[in-house]
Specification:
The complex is a heterodimer of chains A (about 260) and B (about 180).
Chain A (H helix, E strand, L loop, with lengths): L9 H5 L3 H9 L3 H11 L9 H17 L6 H18 L18 H27 L18 E2 L2 H17 L12 H14 L2 E3 L10 H16 L3 E5 L7 E4 L6
Antiparallel strand pairs in A: 1-3, 2-4, 3-4
Chain B lengths: L2 H14 L6 H7 L5 H17 L4 E6 L2 E6 L4 H8 L9 H13 L4 H8 L4 H9 L3 E6 L7 E5 L1 H6 L11 H11 L1
Antiparallel strand pairs in B: 1-2, 3-4
Helix pairs in contact in B: 1-3, 2-3, 5-7
The chains are: A mainly alpha (about 260), B alpha+beta (about 180).
Chain lengths: ~260, ~180
Amino acid sequence: MTNGDDGLDEQQAESGENAIRIRLDCFEGPLDLLLHLIKKDELDIWNIPVARVTEQYLEYLQLMRDLNINLAGEWLVMAATLIYIKSQMLLPPEPAGAEDQAEPDDPRTELVYQLLEHQKFKNAAQMLYTREEVENSVWSRPPAETLEEGREAVSATLFDLLRAFHEVVKRFEEQSRMEMYPEEVSIEQKIEDIRHLLLVHNGLFFSHFFRDAASKQHLIATFLALLELVRTGEILIFQKLAFEDIRITRSGPRTA
Amino acid sequence: MNIEDIQPILEAIIYVADEPVRAEQLKEVFPEESYDKLETVLQNLVEEFNSRRGGMMIREIAGGYRMTTRPEYHEEIRAYLKSKPGARLSMAALETLAVVAYRQPVTLAEILAIRGKKSTTALRTLLEKKLITIVGRKPAVGRPILYGTSKEFLIHFGLKDLAELPTLEEFAQMAGDTL
């Protein structure tokens, strides 16, 4: 299983139907599909026939649905964007009036820049691909094995975690803060953040995860995310001595 | 010490090192010698070693010097090692990596805006392979994580430093030509 399945439902991707996989490797995301549609018919990027492209885009979407592929939200967002642009282009241009003398904005402009930007990074990725190929043809001494630090520790209990969290909240409340943002804090995002942090660091202190929290909601979301990861066994919590700061590490190599 | 005496020692050190050797590290071995002198010896060594046209070469990678086999011999080496080419990064991972390399420090949301799709899986692969790292948090709402490329990135792609990458403008030109 490669990691090219971001846009797909994971289960679908893992069922490993080759024909579908091949098609989807080409059109990983909506921007890739749009670029393909433009190149296929050698369309002028600065003058995209939106009606035609929208129709083809929706056909592909339907095809993917027929193949039982769960499409990620961004595919539908792009469909909505295309339909919106199409409708904007059907409107008669605003009369060159007193109020805005500037040329009326082409509703396609933003999308065109997004496509060009995307193509730019696709080219950069191609360059990296070539470089990687060269580096794959070269050998050097493999790194020497390093001894892994022994782990003598007591695993922490839920009580230890709660006590540590209580400390964090107390410390947070001692700092006076004026900012108020109504915002959504998702536990999923915090889980992903924690995973990423633990990929980079071998182990972190419990308090580290709360260092930069902007609000109490963030503290709580992070704490719940940690509990979830403990529950699923993805992370380990332990301390050298009772009442010491709790350390958190990944439980082992991920197989995903 | 004479240049002639230092040079073979540097060659031996570059051979045993498991990562690119930097001038600062050599300074620890030769505290008496100046940086300038060590740099000069290194340059001499690289020139001499590489002009030999042997099976090995010394390359400047990630701010240091590394001894590798020459890429043109990869088929014979593979035949001897009975090894197949290693697993390559997927296009999704490479695209995500390109965004990180050129836009660093960058957040997940910024990557999403450029790629038009979620990139958490690709990002995780890159972190696991140590090609990118967390460089901090953006001072914005939610303190999102900022990602950047690592030294391992330079080594993996055989780059001396980030400045050795072609500029984004060159790719913009290409993008304009291909579309």
